[in-house]
Design goal:
Length: 392
């Protein structure tokens, strides 16, 4: 029986994780569930899974939860505030941590789970974008198990030799990692057509049902760029060995090209329950509830190159990774602020990339091997980006 903390249980990945656990109750017990403020969902989840602890970051929401828990027959400890996220991630009773908080808010608890030697099921890609070096060092030093949840990285993990972390790709005979991208809802739009697109259009992803932030990131293809950075840290992959290909069907989730000409890929339906079930059960396999892939029904798989002019965020990600240091911290923080502003209709779609580019020019790059410096750069970038948006 493995005891699991689900960070961000009320989100898209959190809900899918609990769906799998609900079918494997004899193998997993829920230690803690966490949310920002969606307590209706959390109350429901607590009724079903009876966790020992919940963390609610927002104080008012926590108060409401306390008032309603008895009526819902829930008996658990309620913690308030972001620091408690770290506590439920590092507790010694916890075996597995699903890191599924969105954005930099997930960094400290994800890092805590890595330092505490847990099996870390990492969905929170931003943690690697911000603290790739520190995070991977923490995993190595603590002996934690790191299982990628992002479908592309999970596919690469499955297509690489056993336990790839730490070895160089060339030692494993790997030529290239090829990340596939659906191209999002605006794949066929011209740069001109992109100007007027709305948040509602941007979050309507053709293949995946996801949280708002990652949906906008998919529409700008910032998401794929963040995934390039994620792959760099996860698989010790030089930037030149990571490529992206548009594959609108999202059936091939990514591929590894080997020096002998072989290409190994992972295929399946676009449903996050597959990578989540893989990471929960690894090295075994368990049913995930996902429909089997039927290639005869799908018929054809297409592939296209990425156009950096149409999707400038992708280019910014490659550039920030090449700059090194805290450039990717700034990239991520500026993007989070810009996406929020776009969702609130304070900026238009193409301004997201422009704003991130400006912040990258303005904020000084520092070495990224010190958490305090990283957090200071993150905070500075958020301020500068907010000001730039207000001045528009
Ligand atoms: P959602 O927006 O659906 O869920 C986010 C979760 O984080 C919710 O539980 C939310 O709580 C919580 N949260 C939000 N802000 C804070 C905060 N400041 N402090 C604490 N908790 C917070 O996101 P997704 O599930 O889509 O994505 C989660 C992560 O997984 C992201 O990093 C994303 O990039 C990654 N990922 C997601 C995929 C997907 O298919 N969804 C695919 C691959 C990666 P509340 O509900 O109360 O707001
Ligand atoms: Mg992905």
């Amino acid at each position: 029986m493995k005891s699991i903390t689900v960070l961000g249980s009320t989100g898209s990945i959190g809900v899918s994780t609990l769906d799998i656990i609900s079918h494997h109750r004899d193998e997993f017990s829920v230690f803690a569930l966490t949310c920002h403020n969606k307590i209706e969902k959390l109350l429901e989840q607590c009724q079903q899974f009876q966790p020992k602890h919940v963390v609610i970051v927002d104080e008012q929401a926590a108060q409401k939860f306390r008032e309603q828990m008895a009526g819902h027959k829930i008996n658990c400890e309620v913690h308030v505030g972001a620091q408690a996220l770290v506590t439920v991630a590092e507790q010694c009773e916890v075996d597995y941590v699903m890191a599924a908080i969105v954005g930099a808010a997930g960094l400290l608890p994800s890092l805590a789970a890595a330092k505490a030697g847990k099996r870390v099921l990492l969905a929170n890609k931003e943690a690697l974008v911000i603290t790739g070096e520190l995070f991977m060092n923490a995993i190595k030093q603590s002996g934690a198990e790191l299982l990628p949840i992002d479908s592309e990285h999970n596919a690469l993990y499955q297509s690489l030799p056993f336990k790839p972390f730490g070895q160089s790709l060339s030692e494993m005979g790997v030529n290239r990692l090829i990340l596939t991208a659906s191209g999002g809802p605006f794949r066929t739009f011209t740069a001109d057509q992109l100007v007027g697109v709305t948040p509602e259009q941007a979050v309507a992803h053709p293949n995946w049902k996801m949280g708002q932030k990652i949906s906008v990131d998919s529409a700008t293809m910032m998401n794929k760029g963040l995934e390039v950075i994620e792959a760099h840290w996860l698989f010790n992959a030089p930037i030149q060995q990571i490529d992206v290909m548009i594959h609108p069907q999202s059936v091939i989730h990514s591929m590894v090209e080997y020096t002998d000409g072989s290409v190994i890929a992972e295929l399946g339906m676009p449903d996050m329950r597959t990578p989540i079930a893989y990471a929960l059960a690894w090295p075994k396999r368990i049913p995930s509830g996902v429909k089997q892939l039927n290639l005869l029904e799908i018929g054809k798989l297409e592939f296209y190159p990425v156009d950096f002019k149409q999707f400038p965020c992708m280019k910014l990600c490659y550039e920030a990774l090449a700059m090194g240091g805290t450039a990717t911290v700034t990239l991520n923080a500026a993007n989070e602020i810009a996406v929020e502003a776009f969702l609130q209709k304070r900026i238009n779609f193409i301004q997201i990339a422009q704003i991130v580019e400006t912040s990258l020019e303005k904020v000084t790059i520092q070495p990224a091997n010190d958490l305090e410096i990283i957090l200071a750069v993150d905070a500075e970038t958020r301020l500068i980006t907010q000001k730039a948006i207000a001045a528009l």
